[in-house]
Design a protein that fits this description.
597 residues, globular, disordered N terminus, binds flavin-adenine dinucleotide
């Protein structure tokens, strides 16, 4: 018999930002157990704080966890080499983690996830599929099709909220429309109810014997792209998987977080959390990161750092928020008039940028780092993105796709937000006319030139005074440093004054074209401002099989504000069913109502 899940939504907080204690999750109810449910893993490769996994564990006697590798469904946004390396390693650890709890991960290769799930349901007799919600339009279309196909088979679908602190449809303006600037979004976001993370399950219902599936190594996630040296480098520096994510989070909370507000702008040392690839593949949840940050003793004594870090986490939420409400922004500008920008589609300049051969060391060092390691610090991303768009006048979508293909933390919503922000496509991002001052950035980001020396060893012997501007060095100085400019390292591809005047001319042409277009449409379309907004709410069900958090009664803002006056807060986790009783490492430090830490 198909278990009935009550449709509904989380209740909105009241005007003080609090919500009734039982609003967060529906309490467990008596329900007839299904024989078999499918847990469809996607970008939630973890056991702790995984609502869909917790729901299947409660709704069925047996649970079949499945991951379907179906890159064709991602269209032009199939994962790049580094991201695939990460996924392959993460799936292997997930399979081992599930096996340790008596379950078994089924790995499938398919070109249509919905069809694969239907076949699986027919083969096994499963009557329910649970999965955690994704917010990018590619996934949402795929999920809608899968749900329709499963519904036609009579299989119940349970999409659950797991990836964000707050759901996009919970953060709206008074008139019910979505925000289109970060500050207003964040203010409203803070009024949402804070839900503490679900505990890690101690055991799981057993998986059915069939079907065979593939071993992680046979899934061929890498495809034809051999990772070679890059793979060796990645294996040395990263530990994909839930345990690796928990270690990275605990390490950052203890040592990196207290100095975050000052150190995060520095590119010559690891100054940020490096959690982004773990977050992308859902090896740790935003709720776990939030809980660990607010619970970190050291950080509570450094509220500036804590707020700065939580603000970064809110940017991640905002990226998903924009993708959900304004799905076109993944590759179209949020501000309509940017459509009329006369980009220079210069392939040679694009190649120079990708290869770190622009002649501007602060840009080239980061681009070479990206190519070799799949990583760039946030400031480096801003500098490289801004340079591509404002200085080289290349379309930001080219840069977005290159970052997508190469970043180890490639994440469509965050990538798109970053590029839109730098390219002048957002109301509250950098204005189109704003060019990043490379000398100023170099002084802030890489004051001693260590980053440039590491990634452009040719320049290593230049003194600090010229490390960021080798073209200003005298011939004698260049000779003493062993550099033949134009041979060993390029002259600047374009000089600054000409880049400035080209940008100004392009911006003027864009404004004129946008004004003409608006006039042609009878002035109906604004030359500036968001357009084609949508206020969509998915058909999200809240499953009655989810564990309840009886004490979830504070808004996100209340929890954050309590940090300023050193107050403590408490949550109560209902773990009476024994399925989930151990709190994960990520929640260490939170005061629980029963007095345990
Ligand atoms: C042009 C450009 C492209 C970007 N592409 C990506 C991308 O593909 N994937 C990605 O995860 N981030 C992207 N970012 C955002 C940001 O640079 C990275 O999230 C951050 O550098 C990751 O390092 P960290 O984990 O140490 O971050 P921390 O500073 O420690 O922040 C903690 C977490 O907050 C989130 N976060 C921080 N800053 C941002 C931001 N500006 N936007 C969205 N989320 C943020 C990330 O999940 C991050 O792991 C991009 C930024 C720019 C300017």
């Amino acid at each position: 018999m198909v278990e009935k899940c009550s449709p509904g939504k989380r209740r909105a907080p009241d005007k003080d930002g609090n919500a009734a204690a039982d609003a967060a999750r529906v309490s467990p109810v008596e329900h007839e157990l299904l024989d078999l449910a499918i847990m469809w893993f996607r970008r939630d490769l973890r056991l702790a704080d995984n609502p869909a996994l917790a729901a299947t564990a409660r709704m069925a006697k047996r649970v079949l966890p499945v991951y379907i590798w179906s890159p064709e469904e991602e269209g032009q946004f199939q994962p790049g080499t580094s991201s695939r390396w990460w996924l392959a390693a993460s799936l292997a650890t997930l399979a081992a983690d599930l096996a340790a709890l008596g379950s078994r991960l089924l790995l499938l290769r398919a070109s249509d996830s919905g069809a694969a799930l239907c076949e699986l349901c027919r083969d096994t007799g499963a009557r329910a599929v649970a999965f955690n919600h994704l917010y990018d339009p590619v996934s949402m279309c795929r999920d809608a099709e899968a749900r329709a196909a499963l519904a036609a088979l009579g299989v119940a679908c349970h999409p659950l909220p797991a990836d964000l602190l707050c759901q996009p449809w919970e953060v709206l303006r008074a008139d019910g429309r979505p925000f289109s600037d970060f500050a207003s979004f964040w203010e409203a976001h803070r009024r949402c109810l804070y839900l503490p993370p679900l505990p890690r399950p101690r055991r799981l219902p057993r998986a059915p014997p069939a079907p065979a599936g593939l071993a992680p190594s046979d899934l061929n996630v890498h495809g034809d792209a051999a990772t070679g040296q890059l793979g060796d480098h990645l294996a040395q520096h990263w530990a994909p998987g839930e345990a690796g994510a928990a270690r990275a989070l605990a390490g950052f909370a203890a040592t990196g977080l207290p100095g975050f507000s000052v150190d995060r702008a520095k590119g010559d040392r690891p100054s940020t959390s490096h959690l982004s690839p773990h977050l992308h593949y859902g090896e740790v949840s935003a709720r776990q990161v939030f809980a660990a940050a607010v619970g970190a003793g050291e950080a509570r004594r450094a509220p500036d750092s804590l707020h700065a870090f939580l603000r970064q986490l809110a940017f991640r939420e905002y990226g998903r928020y924009l993708a959900f409400h304004y799905p076109f922004t993944l590759d179209q500008p949020m501000l309509g008039h940017l459509q009329a920008m006369p980009w220079h589609y210069d392939v040679e300049l694009f190649k120079a940028w990708k290869r770190g051969q622009t002649g501007y060391p602060v840009v080239d060092a980061s681009m070479r780092q990206l190519w070799s390691t799949g990583w760039i610090h946030h400031r480096g991303r801003v500098v490289c993105a801004s340079f591509l768009v404002k200085n080289l006048l290349l379309p930001w979508q080219w840069g977005l796709k290159h970052f997508w293909d190469t970043l180890i933390d490639a994440d469509l919503e965050s990538d798109s937000l970053g590029w839109q922000y730098c390219a002048g496509c957002l109301r509250d991002g950098h204005a189109l006319s704003h060019m990043v001052d490379l000398a100023e950035e170099a002084a802030r980001y890489d004051p001693g030139g260590a980053h440039v020396r590491r990634w452009i060893p040719t320049l290593a012997r230049l003194p600090n005074s010229h490390i960021h501007s080798p073209w200003t060095a005298s011939p004698d100085l260049l000779a003493a440093a062993g550099i033949q400019l134009g041979e060993d390292y390029p002259f600047p591809v374009l000089d600054m004054p000409s880049m400035r005047s080209t940008l100004d001319a392009a911006a003027k042409a864009m404004d004129e074209a946008a004004a003409e277009e608006a006039a042609a449409e009878g002035g109906r379309r604004p030359s500036q401002g968001p357009f084609r907004p949508s206020t969509r709410r998915p058909d999200l069900t809240t499953c009655s099989a989810l564990p309840a958090f009886a004490g979830a009664q504070h808004s996100i803002g209340t929890v954050m504000n309590s940090l300023d006056n050193q107050a403590s807060f408490s949550v109560t986790v209902d773990s009476s069913d024994g399925v989930a009783t151990e709190l994960g490492a990520a929640t260490a430090g939170c005061q629980l109502s029963d007095g345990t830490q």
